[in-house]
Amino acid sequence: MTDPALQSIADRFPRRALALRLLLLGTLVLLLAGLFAPIITLEKLLFVHNTFSLASGLVQLLGEGQVLVFLLVGGFSVLLPLAKLVVLFLFVGRHWADRTRLHRYVGWMHRYGRWSMLDVFVVAVLVATVKLGAVANVQVHYGLYLFAAAVLLTMAATAWVMRLADALEREAGA
């Protein structure tokens, strides 16, 4: 039998790890769809209709020279969520001989988990940075819901990974 101190989450909990990896894959699909699907339509003066996704909004920000806002939105809404999904996926299969490192990574995931809803806030910032004019009507589309679902599922997956890591550590310590 394998030493519990050297087991990964996938080694110790194979069915849960498979379900978790499928959840992470589904979350990635939702995140990518949420990035490219239309999130809002802006109507100005009943004649101008502008529908955009988060990705097209980022392109528009860059085109308008809003580099700092582009970097903030792109970092918090695209790069960090993608990085978190990759880290969670790798975390499931990783063998943890060094328990100090495991504690550090679990702590990092917990601290970053508090910032997860910042992704949704960033979308609101994106909407605010679009120059609206005096009168505008905003319609929300399914892309925003896909994106929000990906954020929520990422939070759930993080909690699940943390519980499994804690269980793995308790078994190794026993």
Automatic annotation (TrEMBL):
Per UniProt, which keywords does this protein have? Membrane, Transmembrane, Transmembrane helix
The transmembrane segments are 22-47, 67-92, 112-136, 142-162
Short name of one Pfam family: PqiA
Is Plastid among this UniProt entry's keywords? no
**Protein name, entry field:** Paraquat-inducible protein A
Q: What is the scientific name of the source organism?
A: Thioalbus denitrificans
- Upper lineage: Bacteria, Pseudomonadati, Pseudomonadota, Gammaproteobacteria, Chromatiales
